[in-house]
Amino acid sequence: MLKFDPIISNVGGKIKMTENDKPKWKKFEEAVASIQKNIAPGARITNDEKIRGKSGTVRQIDIVIRYNIGQYSILVVADCKDWKNPVDIGDLGQFIDMVEDVRANKGALICNVGFTEGAKNRAKEKGIDLLRVIDTENPDIKLKINFPALCDFRRIETFNFRFQHSASTHFAMPACDPRYIEIYKQDHSFNDILINLLVKAWNSGELPLEIGGYKNLKFIKEDAFTKVNNIFYGPIEITATIVVKRKLFFGNIPLEKGQGFTNEVTGGFTTNSIEFGLDAVEVEKTWQEIFDPIELAIQPVFIFHASDCFPLIEYKLPTT
Predict the structure, then answer these.
(1) Sorting pLDDT into bands at 50, 70 and 90, what band is 69?
(2) Could you say which of 135, 157, 177 is where a domain stops?
């Protein structure tokens, strides 16, 4: 069987280049332009534009971004370098000349193999962005990114219960572990055991999450009753004292889906949509536990706050 894989087609008498036939540098430019359009949908973005500079020289510019803010027109020019070696200070100098010549408000160099330290220092001085491209859906762009992150897990460290009965009648409590005291509603139907009611209030976010101690928290919304020898007692007021503590874990989250630009000068990442997953169990197993964020040499991009979700105890009423 013969298999034909045409890479050039003649449409309307014109030679049309297919995706397979495009050189790698051209695909790189188009990917950059596409991402920029997603990030700034209100801007007018063109590829391979020629602008005459104040020197009289016509400058070829890979990507031109124009944006109007009120009565002002903003011009940004970008040059794409699909190179094998990092951009050095000499290459940056030529780009700076071009930015100044066309009177651009901003210039950006994009190169996925990076930039020399001299180029980074010069770019910072001149206000030039040095960018690398992230696109998880593009097989030609293999650069991956991890976000340094801090996970702040809150949990109840200790707790105790307080019972108060203000009615004139006497009150009796079951002689058992207080966690397993059966709590009933006003209609004498079973509500739950005491520890489960506290856990439900914590898991649903009804209790304080900030670090510290808290006294006399009312965590049962309705009137509470107990039962001893089939006699109901109550209503009683039950409150809890809890101590909330935290565990801190530092690690990196890989970007699962998204596209954008990392800025080698500022360290920032620009995008309009990203996706990543976070497994709390894996965080506690594999990330580094720290005791104070001041210990970190690298500042986290994301800080996640979460609370431990305690399991409920399976409890069945004893048969009588």
Answers:
(1) confident
(2) 135
